[in-house]
Amino acid sequence: MQTNKKSFLAHCLRQSLVALGAFSLSCSLQANSLPQIPAEQVNNTMYQMFYWDAYPGLWADLPAMAEPLAERGITSMWLPPAAKGMNGTNSVGYDVYDFWDLGEFYQKGTIATRYGTRQQLDQALSALDQLGVQAYFDVVFNHRMGADAQEYIPGYGLAWTEYQLQGRQVHYTQQNWGYLWHDFDWNWTAFNGSDNQLYPGKWWGNTFHFPYLMGEDVDYNRFEVQQEMKAWGEWIINSVGFSGFRMDAIAHVDTDFTRDWINHVQWATSEDVFFVAEAWVSDINGYLDAVNTPHLRAFDFNLREDFVALSSGSKDMRWWGGLVNSQHRDRAVTFVDNHDTSRAGNPYGMPQVINYKNQAYAYILLREHGVPTVFARDYDEFGMAPTLDKLIEARRYFAYGPGHEYSGNTEAVYAYVREGLSTVPGTGLVMLMSGRNWGGQQSFTINSHQPNTTFYDYTGNVSGTVTTNAQGYGSFPVNMTESTGWSVWVPQSIGGTQPGTITLRMTKDVGYGFSLFFTGSSAELTNWGGGVEGTWTSGNVWEVTIPDPGNFEWKTRKGPTGGSGQDWESGSNHNQNNLHPSFNGGF
């Protein structure tokens, strides 16, 4: 994130050449207004940068998409499978064909994958690195698909098992890999079976979940296959530039191989590699115990079941399960939805999380344990960006120190406290979320662990302040509604939007020497006059903080920096219900 701040301040310096001196000052003040968390202590917040059948050409678009997310507090991105799939540019990546082809070789009718070329991938990874964002590779170990020819397997018959793999031929060579290289072909001997039938002389291996899932099932009992995959893992981290792996359907893969591969890749690099298992099993603790390596985390599917109950409006808010509330809480990767649980048409028949989704995100983003995941479909397609931005920012700047569940949680309200860092003033929080749509507010006397401190709700859902007593106790309210029933109370002394104010944002490149002005139906917004000049932030996001006028309508105008807005945004007016809407066009 430090590189990100440098980029932001560099923009301010450029603006000072054409703007009033006060504009440059306001930029630098804003960059330093939030608690300054040491880089090594910044919370990891992961963003799933895709959903099913989305974002073709992603590698070229990724730098611009990632910059505003990094500004909010995203520190890592789970990217879609980057290897060549059997359907070429039509493949989302889970029908993996050639592990060593990341959009570099003409195979399956294309050089590029669905997401772009190897060169574009390299450029995207470099841009993420400059933003301080780690990239995680979605690896599909279980199977291969798209064989180039059939083979006759004695005792079995014909099967599509002959793979030519041009990428492998170039990258997996004896010169490159020494003792990890073995001269063998990816033919039927590299697989256990297909269509849930074993090939002669094979066995399925030591899998935690049922062994056959789809495609040609890779034989990880074979030593040569194990060694090649170890070489590939080293290549992805040390040469390509990823920082970790999301391991698809890994409970169907031989557990001994999984352990050995993870330990080898971690051994082969000085980087602290991130490994997370998609183990879609009932006993996730049991799976982690079976793999038995401290480097592996797992997605918390059990916790998501609580979010399904929350969505129904009948969740008992006192009791929460999942990996994050177990002996392996430090190895949980929490999420609300992903590309499988939330897909158009719901092909897996998954129970859906539709209501109280912001509350679910508040739960995973602000607690002490677990690495939370923000899902791209929620953020952009479902329009949750304005609310998620505030929760991501709250995690980035305030969610530090030991965590405490409030002992007085009820069936309807859950509260949680972070003490903050003693070395960083302004950190810590009190989070409350309601699971009922009763209307009104409820307040709870909670120990914030911060005596004589004034708090305000960073989300803006509840106005006013709460000041704690000498023992750290204060009466913290939360709205009893689905639509605004989450609050994150943070210290007022440092940071962010102050109580009684509201921040409007608009993403728009207005060009050199111009600014975006916010105008509207209230005195705070000049009663549809020339507007209030906004402040530029990274990603061409303009924002202005004003006293909260309550109900109001607003638009933006473009004008010369230091002047007033002259050219109107077109389309309908915006209102207080969407503080960061899409630009309507015009100018």
Low-confidence stretches: 1-32, 494-499
Task: Give the DSSP E fraction (strand runs of 2 or more residues).
Answer: 15-25%
| Overall number of strands | 32
What share of the residues lie within helices?
10-25%
3D structure, described in words:
With 587 residues, the protein is an alpha+beta fold. Strand 12 (244-247), helix 8 and strand 13 form a beta-alpha-beta unit. Helix 7 packs parallel to helix 8. Mean pLDDT is 92; it is low at 1-32 and 494-499. It comes from Alkalimonas delamerensis. This is Alpha-amylase.
Task: Tag the structure with descriptive keywords.
32 strands, 587 residues, single chain, 24% helix, globular, alpha+beta
Summarize the structure.
It comes from Alkalimonas delamerensis. Residues 548-587 are annotated as: Disordered. This protein has 587 residues and is of the alpha+beta class.
SSE diagram, text form:
Layout: H1 2-15, H2 21-31, E1 46-48, H3 58-72, E2 76-78, E3 84-85, E4 96-98, H4 118-131, E5 134-139, E6 143-144, E7 149-153, E8 157-162, H5 166-171, H6 174-177, E9 191-194, E10 197-198, E11 216-218, H7 223-240, E12 244-247, H8 255-267, E13 274-277, H9 284-291, E14 296-299, H10 301-311, E15 332-334, H11 357-366, E16 371-375, H12 376-381, H13 385-397, E17 403-405, E18 413-418, E19 429-434, E20 441-447, E21 454-457, E22 465-467, E23 473-479, E24 486-491, E25 501-507, E26 514-520, E27 532-533, E28 535-537, E29 541-547, E30 553-560, E31 567-568, E32 574-575
Parallel strand pairs: 1-2, 1-16, 2-5, 5-12, 12-13, 13-14, 14-15, 15-16
Antiparallel strand pairs: 3-4, 6-11, 7-8, 9-10, 9-11, 17-18, 18-19, 19-24, 20-23, 21-22, 21-24, 25-29, 26-27, 26-30, 28-29, 30-31, 30-32
Helix pairs in contact: 1-2, 3-4, 7-8, 11-13
